[in-house]
Write a structure and sequence with these properties.
Distance between the termini: 33 Å
Number of helices: 13
Order of helices and strands: HEHHHEHEEHEHEEHHHHHH
Largest sheet: 3 strands, antiparallel
Strand order of the largest sheet: 1-7-6
Number of strands: 7
Pfam families: DUF229 (PF02995)
Strand content: 5-15%
Shape: globular
Helix content: 25-40%
Structural class: alpha+beta
InterPro entries: DUF229
Radius of gyration: 19 Å
Length: 292
């Protein structure tokens, strides 16, 4: 997207999926866990239908809420929302702002709200949220599974930039949809594009040096993105040079499944170390050490 290029966004060229659908890739991103670990971590799936399904799981927005961030979670299409289509959803609103009840009531059979598309209504809602909290700390997680024209998202971002409402915002745009059963690897490698405020790199130069290096030639996954985003809940503590150096030393002799992109990922990291199933391991034009 041209708008992201103008925002000097960093693209993760080695980003790999860890499963074959959006749920399998968003759970690691939002919770830091694989789907098959959720039973031990938070009791999902539960054999008892009356038990809340995902409320006890370690969602990313909890880390931000604990630091005083306002939080938003929205997922379209509403009737096929990723957590609600997986046995239950939430017993209570998971975030401060959660527009699902509105969309359930207002959505028509064609996916429209009145004469406007569901997607355009959501983008307007998100713009209002960002405008309201532009000078505060917030985390907005927005997923649109229904086809959303690039133009609609681009115009929304242009409006926010023109109004100078993204000057303290780290923006992450990614795809995490269904993966085709056949086809070249590059056809299903997810897009991950991250843009930072102009002041961010000068304040956290070591962190940004690592992130740029990782974006070029390192294998990365949703587990890494989860830890990267968690770092942004307390950047003054987690991204200062001394703390980064200490964390880098701690992982130097380890092979953790997830590594924050603000730390340097080893150039010998492979799919086995990163917990990428062999089926999804990027293997076209491989370079030594990238695959098993």
């Amino acid at each position: 997207m041209e708008t992201l290029r103008r925002m000097s966004a960093v693209n993760l060229k080695g980003q790999s999926p860890v499963g074959n659908d959006a749920f399998a890739n968003l759970v690691p991103l939002l919770m830091g866990q694989a789907v098959d670990e959720l039973d031990d971590v938070c009791g999902w799936p539960s054999p008892r239908p009356e038990r809340p399904k995902f409320d006890q799981c370690p969602h990313l927005w909890r880390s931000f809420a604990e630091q005083g961030f306002r939080t938003l979670f929205a997922d379209l299409p509403t009737r096929a929302a990723i957590f609600n289509s997986q046995e239950g959803g939430f017993a209570s609103p998971p975030t401060d702002y959660y527009p699902r009840p509105f969309f359930l009531a207002a959505e028509g059979p064609s996916g429209c709200v009145g004469r406007r598309t569901e997607t355009s209504v959501l983008l307007r809602y998100v713009q209002t949220f960002v405008r309201r909290f532009a000078s505060s700390r917030y985390l907005a997680v927005v997923r649109v599974a229904r086809s959303a024209p690039d133009q609609a998202l681009s115009e929304a971002l242009k409006t926010l930039r023109r109004r100078k409402q993204l000057e303290n915002t780290v923006l992450v745009v990614l795809t995490a949809g269904e993966i085709p059963p056949k086809g070249a690897v590059e056809e299903f490698l997810p897009l991950v594009s991250i843009s930072f405020p102009a002041w961010f790199e000068s304040k956290f130069p070591a962190a940004m040096t690592n992130l740029r290096k990782n974006s070029e030639d390192r294998l990365t996954t949703p587990f890494d993105l989860h830890l990267t985003l968690k770092d942004l809940a307390e950047p003054s503590r987690t991204l200062n040079a001394a703390h980064l150096s200490q964390r880098q030393a701690e992982i130097s002799n380890l092979s953790p499944r997830g590594v924050s992109l603000f730390l340097e990922i080893s150039d010998w990291r492979n799919c086995s170390v990163a917990h990428v199933p062999r089926r999804w391991c990027p293997c076209l034009n491989p370079k030594p050490g990238l695959i098993d």
